[in-house]
Task: inverse folding
């Protein structure tokens, strides 16, 4: 990512009106580092506690005894913080605007009072299905209001939700139901998206064949489309909701009781269940939502993510609702019915803060400015991006064409693991640089380390791996069922630090630029994908002997999926087989894991000990094979010539 000389300081008006200006940022940041306990004690008051906390931070990053606790002796309920506490002041205010996939279908405005009733009803239905405190519930729903009711209903009764993105396959769903030993799966008949429809219930049926017989399935009617029904296992939400009570007292949960599990890809093995707990997560989601987006009472906030990702958890549901905002849930895609949809929705609902991913910006940029210009975007005040580094061209287009040069862009860097933003410019405080995540959020101490010596790089400019020196309340606490893997993944390579898996540059002004993953995680359209997952899907195919998967630069998606495949002896490398493997991976994992390029590899470059040299495969996929580095340790250096000769990415 190139650094540009031009910076974009906040307007005088923005600096004067924002929650945080430059001087306040400096003072608050210094205070947050000097005395984290005092700082986070004060911020702890953002949420309503049933039992006030007396402890603030209790953290140890020592390998073998890693523990992360915040506000541990307090009790609270996340759903009460998102709903009940707003009822008196804003019971009739819209909490959620639901914008359906089809623009002809009416949007729904759900008030805080209605949200309360719907959440309580869903909570009572779950209780009747036998769900109690600490149980897991898997949510496999489209972007419909019931997804938010389901999350909040779980939180209300102390159940732990685990959302599985509706684009994931039955196999991926089954793995997550089994991994979390869920009691109930909540799904819908069909999921409309982009004018097409996914048979979600059919997927759930297939997944449940591989799950314990005791798992129940609660089915929401979205389209009324056909489904099959298993009596005794399947329950009709729309029928049950009629008779359900609209009262359900929120459970008093310990601050460190899990709020949710969210599976995400890592550099090795199968996806891991990231665990977030209640107190610290709520404080951090609420604070980052308010400060990063300069959210003010009465604003309409739109995050275009899906609730299946962490961005949807923190910035569609928990953060905005904790702050009493009006939050938009959009069921559709940016290009349906055409490329003006995002902007039409902004105009229709008078959106004040708009938060999306670089991949969407690049795709829309390619469709031309007219789609933007025909909408009235004067309500927009702050724009945001998340998920991957944004290239300066896309940043400039977002700034000029969408924001009309008036709206600061917050380039928020964070992860499923971090619960909320760790680095971002603040709208009223920082002179933005296109492509830079700029500054740490309060309490965040980024350090740049030399990758092999783990030595901390001081001064500016420097480049290395990005670690965080201390904890913050929104940090993940463990990997579900595998605390050892948690310690090993995040605290073993660079002892004493949380290792992010990202590389970064700190420029001469001390501003941060994320350079991308340094591990075997690739970022496809802002979605995390472990190369190991795609490899294991490929080798599960009868005709595949071996596979290696790497990322390569892709104009729209950021990174594309490049697969090197060695076939079983006697198998013909045909285009039909390519297509078959592509579809195979789509069914094994989901469409987001579709290979972009599949190269037939008679052999893979391996060391004499049999380790695949991915560095070489990455270079070939990037079409940058002039500097392959040292290949002398390869067992058979000649395979490299064949791979270069037959590369797909020319
Ligand atoms: C929130 C989310 C995390 C990974 C992260 C990094 C990349 C996210 C970014 C960014 C550059 C940004 N990433 N935001 N890279 N600039 N503003 O995306 O979580 O799905 O867990 O992905 O995404 O590589 O490590 P998650």
Result:
């Amino acid at each position: 990512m190139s650094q540009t000389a031009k910076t974009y300081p906040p307007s005088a008006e923005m600096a004067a009106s924002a929650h945080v200006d430059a001087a306040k940022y400096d003072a608050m940041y210094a205070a947050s580092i000097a005395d984290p306990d005092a700082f986070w004690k004060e911020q702890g008051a953002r949420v309503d506690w049933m039992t006030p906390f007396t402890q603030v931070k209790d953290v140890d990053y020592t390998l073998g005894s890693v523990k992360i606790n915040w506000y541990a002796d307090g009790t609270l309920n996340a759903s009460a913080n998102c709903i009940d506490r707003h009822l008196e002041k804003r019971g009739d205010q819209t909490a959620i605007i639901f914008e359906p996939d089809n623009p002809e279908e009416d949007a729904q405005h759900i008030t805080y009072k209605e949200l309360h009733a719907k959440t309580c009803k869903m909570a009572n239905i779950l209780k009747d299905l036998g769900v109690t405190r600490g149980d897991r519930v898997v949510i496999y729903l489209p972007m419909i209001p019931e997804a938010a009711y389901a999350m909040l209903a779980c939180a209300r009764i102390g159940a732990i939700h685990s959302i599985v993105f509706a684009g994931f396959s039955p196999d991926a769903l089954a793995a997550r139901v089994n991994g979390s030993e869920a009691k109930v799966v909540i799904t819908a008949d069909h999921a409309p998206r982009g004018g097409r429809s996914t048979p979600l219930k059919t997927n759930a049926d297939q997944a449940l064949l591989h799950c314990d017989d005791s798992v129940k399935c609660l089915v929401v009617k979205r389209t009324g489309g056909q489904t099959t029904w298993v009596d005794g296992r399947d329950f009709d939400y729309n029928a049950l909701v009629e008779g359900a009570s609209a009262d359900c007292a929120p459970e008093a949960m310990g601050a460190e009781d899990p709020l949710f599990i969210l599976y995400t890809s890592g550099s090795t093995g199968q996806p891991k269940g990231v665990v977030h707990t209640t107190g610290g997560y709520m404080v951090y989601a609420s604070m980052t939502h308010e400060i990063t987006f300069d959210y003010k009472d009465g604003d309409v906030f739109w995050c275009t993510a899906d609730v299946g990702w962490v961005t949807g958890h923190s910035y569609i549901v928990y953060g905005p609702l904790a702050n009493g905002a009006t939050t938009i849930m959009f069921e559709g895609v940016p290009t349906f019915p055409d490329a003006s949809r995002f902007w039409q929705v902004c105009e229709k609902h008078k959106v004040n803060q708009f938060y999306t991913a670089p991949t969407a910006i690049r795709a829309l940029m390619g469709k031309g400015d007219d789609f933007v210009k025909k909408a009235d975007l004067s309500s927009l005040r702050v724009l945001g991006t998340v998920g991957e580094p944004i290239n300066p061209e896309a940043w400039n287009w977002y700034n000029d064409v969408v924001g009309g040069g008036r709206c600061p862009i917050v380039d928020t860097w964070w992860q499923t693991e971090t619960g909320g933003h760790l680095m971002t410019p603040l709208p009223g405080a920082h002179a933005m640089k296109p492509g830079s995540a700029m500054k740490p959020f309060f309490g965040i101490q980024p350090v740049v380390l030399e990758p092999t010596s783990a030595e901390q790089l001081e001064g500016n400019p420097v480049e290395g791996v990005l670690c965080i020196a201390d904890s913050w309340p929104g940090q993940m606490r463990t990997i579900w069922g595998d605390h050892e893997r948690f310690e090993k993944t995040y605290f073993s390579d660079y002892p004493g630090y949380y290792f992010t898996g990202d590389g970064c540059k700190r420029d001469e002004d001390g501003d941060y630029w994320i350079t991308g993953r340094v591990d075997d995680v690739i970022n496809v359209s802002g979605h995390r994908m472990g190369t190991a997952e795609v490899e294991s899907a490929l080798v599960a195919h009868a005709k595949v002997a071996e596979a290696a998967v790497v990322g390569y630069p892709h104009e729209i998606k950021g990174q594309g999926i490049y697969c090197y495949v060695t076939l079983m002896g006697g198998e013909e490398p045909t285009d039909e087989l390519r297509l078959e493997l592509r579809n195979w991976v789509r069914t094994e994992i989901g469409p987001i894991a579709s290979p972009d390029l599949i190269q037939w590899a008679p052999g893979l470059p391996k060391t004499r000990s049999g380790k695949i040299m991915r560095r070489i495969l990455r270079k070939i996929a990037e079409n940058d094979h002039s500097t392959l580095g040292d290949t002398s340790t390869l067992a058979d250096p000649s395979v490299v010539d064949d791979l270069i000769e037959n590369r797909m990415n020319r």
Q: What stands out?
A: The chain has a mean pLDDT of 96. The chain has 21 helices and 30 strands.
